[in-house]
Amino acid sequence: MKQSEFLNMVMPFKDKVFRFSKRLLVSTEEAEDATQELFLKLWKNREKISSYKNVEAFAMTMTKNYCFDRLKSKQASNLSLVHSNYKENGTSLDKKTELSDSVSIVHQLIAKLPEQQRMIIQLRDVEQYEYEEIGKMLDIKQTAVRVALSRARKTIREQLIKQHNYGIN
Amino acid sequence: MESIKIEQLIEKYLDAETTLQEEAVLQDYFVNSKVAPHLEEYRALFGYFAESKNERYTKTIQLNTQKKHWKWLSVAASVVLLFSVYTGYNSFNSSSDELTSLEMAEAQQALEDTQKAFQLLSNNMNKGTAAMAYLGEYQATTNKIFKQPVK
């Protein structure tokens, strides 16, 4: 497989890989490193991946595993990840200033969810994968995906209502 | 009324029973239309999801790592080093025992020339030193003529 062929195959989901790893690793720099590293891994295994039916799902599973490894090694070396960069550069945040506060609140609420729920929210509500695909990526049953997703959505809603009421009072 | 339909969809959404199409309807409603006040909190949620989709990986993906280059560079460097040590050692060995007769003669010639040159230099040097002896005579005469200060 040539480099250009490979890039054509993986380019469509590079942003998804990046966003997914950012959801898990929090910091943008970490996520960028992870994305770079992941595509390098895919490139090294290029002969193998051409036999996979769904390269994208495989890449997402690899991303998950890689990020978990990163998190584990971070914990082992007692380094905490930087949780400061919630604000994004270049997004439409500035345009909707009245929304931006509550939007970053949503970000923080998602960040507080358990890892599994965080991943599922990301894969479903941001990347819009089918339940079946998410189940394959995370190696869990579809019903488990739904249960976790429902739990995550309800938690976020409750917290948002709480925040909303604080704002009014 | 539209908000009733949305409320039903929200219920399904919270139970994770909506399809992707239905979720797209919800997203469109909360991002693009006037949201009913009692559903206000969902606006931030769907707004956030819509915005998150726009985040891009802006760097270029590098498939040839720097690390790999360094590894090969060090291999190349050690090969060059080994080769140069080997050839250097070889030529050192060969130069000591395999001198041709021509080289020998040349070396002999060079030695003779150098010795001749040194001989010439030494002769002239001796001439100069002999001349210096007169200066010593001068010094002795002056000492005789002028009274030396008493120490």
- Gap between N and C termini of chain B, in Å? 135 Å
Helicity of chain A, in percent?
over 70%
In terms of DSSP E residues, the strand content of chain A is under 5%
Number of helices of chain B: 5
CATH topology of the largest domain in chain A: Rna Polymerase Sigma Factor, Chain: A
Characterize the structure shown:
- The complex is a heterodimer of chains A (169) and B (151).
- Chain A has 169 residues and is mainly alpha-helical.
- Chain A is built from nine helices and no strands.
- Residues 88-96 of chain A have low confidence and may be disordered.
- By secondary structure, chain B is an all-alpha fold.
- Among the domains of chain B are: 2-52, no CATH class; 103-146.
- Helix content of chain B is 77%, strand content 0%.
- Chain B is built from five helices and no strands.
- The chains are: A mainly alpha (169), B mainly alpha (151).
- The interface between A and B is large, with 46 and 29 residues.
Structure characteristics:
heterodimer, A: 169 residues, mainly alpha, Rna Polymerase Sigma Factor, Chain: A, Arc Repressor Mutant, subunit A, 2 domains, B: 151 residues, 5 helices, 77% helix
Write the SSE topology.
The complex is a heterodimer of chains A (169) and B (151).
Chain A: H1 3-10, H2 14-25, H3 28-44, H4 46-49, H5 55-76, H6 97-112, H7 115-126, H8 131-138, H9 142-168
Chain B: H1 2-14, H2 20-32, H3 40-52, H4 66-97, H5 101-145
Helix pairs in contact in B: 1-2, 2-3
Compact overview of the structure:
Chain A is mainly alpha-helical and 169 residues long. Chain A has helices spanning 3-10, 14-25, 28-44, 46-49, 55-76, 97-112, 115-126, 131-138, 142-168.
